[in-house]
Amino acid sequence: MADSSTIQLSMPEADIAVLTLDAPDKGANVLAQSVLAELDAHLTSLEKRQDLAGLIIRSAKSGIFIAGADLREFAAAKNPTREQTIEVASRGRKLFQRLSKCPFVTVAAIDGVCVGGGAELAIWCDRRIMTTSPKAQYGFPEVKLGMFPGWGGTARTPRVVGLGNAVELVTSGESIDGRTAMQMGLISDLVPSERLDAAAVALVRAEQQSKSYLADRELWSRPLDIDDTELGFLGATASAYIQQQTKGHYPAPLAALEVMLGSAGLDVDAAAQAEAEGFAGLFGTPINRALINVFFLTDRNKKDTGVESPDARPRDIKAVGVFGAGIMGAGISAAVVKREVPVTLTDAAPPALAGGVQKILEEVAFNKQTKGADPQRMLKFAPLINATTTDAEFKGCDLVIEAVVENPKVKAELYQRIEPLLGDGTILASNTSAISIGRLAEKLKRPERFCGIHFFNPVRKMPLVEVIRGPKTSDATIATAVAFAKAIGKSPIVVEDGPGFLVNRLLLPYMNEALELMLDGVEIKAIESAAKGFGMPMGPITLYDVVGLDTAYYAGQVMHEAFPDRIGESPLLAAMVKAGRLGQKAGVGFFAYKDKKGGRGAPDPKLADVLKPLVRGQTKLSEQQIVERLFLPMVLEATRILAEHKVRDPRDVDLGLIYGIGFPPFKGGLLFWADTLGAAKIIETLKPYELLGPRYQPTPMLLEMAKAKQGFYER
Ligand code: NAD
């Protein structure tokens, strides 16, 4: 029978024990309860041995030490009591804590990702070594999941690396590499991967001689050596920073800070007890559950090939062509070049081509550290850009992306011209925001090799890519588009063709409702603050100004034509465009701007000239009512999208909105949030709004779900 255990014991030398983690049939080691039980059993037998000089803990997985606790077990824990959570956390911590009490030195030898529960296991060892491999990363990402370390991470870390360092590590959730870990005093040695095992043995031998780990054991079990002034200063600066970062929506980093500051004067056991109690206050809360869901959404997306058929193999993309060197064409080209894939680029207007190349060079040469142009990067990436005015140069491209003006005729004419030049296997894709992929494919000879690859603006910042399947697009084309988007660091979601595809179809009802609220006499300030209070990165009225009111007007027309029963033609948008109030780029939209390129807008009294004649009432709504008016039409539209099978899973809707419009991750996604309300409750909440029209009437899917007491995630 095959060995199903994760931890193997070996003895490379008579007095040195090595525990190697290697979860069978899995890419990563995670600390499931079963693995903790194995560790317990190994420690129980090793602790009895008086002949050992040291224990080394390592991993056999390439690039991974331990990826953390088993989050599936976390998610499956159904409403544990506070006492149960404290008990489970304490049990894990006490197990790891034994590593700091063995009758020999314990060493974590880290050559890969070491995060969460893995970082806690390592911090309880007497010593740690990391490798110089870029994959060797140490961190506590728990706050990103709405909790903090619960197996002693907040208690032990400040005692090993000092409170300031520990606060930064735990409250930021960011990982550090070996070099930073060395500077911090977290590790004793930094070595190349191939020398890790030998260095761990050498460290055991050195500690056997010096016994310095025994002095540290004593020191690290005591209260921290820090005075009240220092503590007060650290607390004030860290909490101000955290509040600015989290905007009050994410409680975990502040809770972690409080527990660490509050435990500074305690011994490590009492600090660990305080940690377990604080942990129980976060574990299982709605925000914790929502953020764990987002983790699963991204994990699922990483594994999703975009197609059901395992036979649809993605084509290797070694060269990309881009037509159109405007905002999007330049952004897409830069994203591709940064991954060291050559790009051939053209534009109908030579100045636009020159401008596009300039923008690409600026972006690829930008060095994040120095915040300026980096000649080394320029030398590396510039040769990968081929700006041309000759169609024939696109012949060798594996993928050609069209990002020319949003005009179906111009796009179709371009395809007619270039399709005959492209290689047999070349995929042609459009970055169109709104034109039907089926319509664009009408005159193509090979519509099976055509799809939409819809990037979001600015490409550099936005992780989402919608891969749009036209009526004739093949699985192999979709698989290739998905693999390509991932290869350039994006998160692709496959969507069936249709007006607004996924994200804009969901965004428009929300945006439209913001205008309706204004016409009902609701103050802009109230609308903006309700949306931001819900967690949106900006209010919908500001978003109109950023997108541009002319663009929004055009998008609204498309949606109105497609769904006239629920998306009306807003007279306000038309009036704004007519008045030349096109948003930020015009210096004036719903707000007035000093700088057309950025910055906050200020309320503009002149807006009343456009708005007043159109306002039909003076409705006063509570923040909750505004939230319902804005977000419930979005939920209803999502049920229609699911009923029409536009996406393969409700989870695609949720990730799409988080990545595409910044839907608040702490709500877990639109449909995850809707599930926390339940279909029956949503139907009840909709009742007073139904007189506003079909856009507030429960859909057949929602009614069915209420009847079956079913959530979106259970469908
Ligand atoms: P843009 O106006 O900045 O750039 C379009 C470029 O295409 C111009 O430089 C123009 O000279 C060039 N062009 C026009 N006809 C051409 C032809 N026949 N051959 C080669 N070049 C030609 O526009 P953009 O914002 O980059 O948009 C491009 C596409 O991306 C559109 O389909 C748009 O809907 C879509 N899109 C835009 C955004 C956005 O926020 N800007 C977001 C997603 C998708």
Features:
alpha/beta; 2-enoyl-CoA Hydratase, Chain A, domain 1; Rossmann fold; N-(1-d-carboxylethyl)-l-norvaline Dehydrogenase, domain 2; eight-stranded mixed β-sheet
Please write out the topology.
Blueprint: E1 7-13, E2 16-21, H1 33-47, E3 54-59, E4 63-66, H2 71-76, H3 82-97, E5 105-110, E6 112-115, H4 117-124, E7 127-131, E8 137-139, H5 153-161, H6 163-172, E9 176-177, H7 178-184, E10 189-191, H8 196-210, H9 212-220, H10 228-246, H11 252-262, H12 268-282, H13 286-303, E11 320-323, H14 327-338, E12 343-346, H15 350-365, E13 366-367, E14 372-373, H16 375-381, E15 385-387, E16 399-402, H17 408-418, E17 427-430, H18 437-440, E18 450-455, E19 464-469, H19 475-487, E20 491-496, H20 503-519, H21 524-534, H22 540-547, H23 549-562, H24 571-578, E21 591-592, E22 602-603, H25 607-611, H26 623-643, H27 650-661, H28 670-677, H29 679-686, H30 700-708
Parallel strand pairs: 2-3, 3-5, 4-6, 5-7, 6-8, 7-10, 11-12, 11-16, 12-15, 16-17, 17-18, 19-20
Antiparallel strand pairs: 1-2, 8-9, 13-14, 18-19, 21-22
The structure holds nicotinamide-adenine-dinucleotide (NAD).
